[in-house]
Amino acid sequence: MLADGSTFEKVGVNRFAGGGALPSEMAARLGSERAQGLEVEFFATGVSVVCHPRSPMVPIVHMNVRYFQLTGPDGEVVDHWFGGGLDLTPTYPFPEDAVHFHRTLRRICMQHHPEYYDRFKAWCDRYFVNIHRDNENRGIGGIFFDNLRPGENGELDAEAAFALVRDVGLAMRVAYGPIVERRRKEPWGSREKELQLVRRGRYAEFNLVHDRGTKFGLQTNARIESVLMSMPPSANWGYNLTWPEGTFEHRLHQMLPPRNWADGVPDEFLTPVR
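Predicted structure:
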């Protein structure tokens, strides 16, 4: 854990490798139907990274890669899969940053499978949504995938799937690093900071209410500090917040619905904000 840094207020890196007994109903919630009615043990390993910048001009980033395996009573593998993703949550509207982020992820995915970027982007757009806030997306997305079973239904074999997951895990440097360097010294004031705190509140809402990983950690008695490491260091909740058109606050919320960022900045975002 990094806290109170000059560029980042909080960065958490979780590494996990372990397992234990897993009720079949929980296995089903994780996406496995093969464990139905069985007493299974799980083994999971993965890495998660969440970065909360100090400056509201620098977006939040989240990365996770993981492998999950279920074994039956006699030790045979019942089910196994890879998962992962990388997504961006801006707290100030820079459409060109969204374009860079998505183009980088598209290039990485295309090196492994021609369909993966479109599939994983759409999955990310569906997953990181605050349903309780009229289906508001947490950020501008990225890629997300789960239950990627090696060799099934035209998917990559185990070695190729692991290579994909490894590249996703290493993508932060090229997808996020240039954005940080470009924005970290941008000037900002109280309005920008207030919007950042509001968006951090929405980030926390998703993680506590909807995120499967957080729920899994809480239900398996994992170390609570690790489960909640993704929480922002501070956040605000206003009441019935709205912003006039043309302001940067309104522009940011215009960026949240899913868009084809890898194709370039949409025309509607070319006008300046105030």
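Summary: Residues 190-209 form the longest helix (20 residues).
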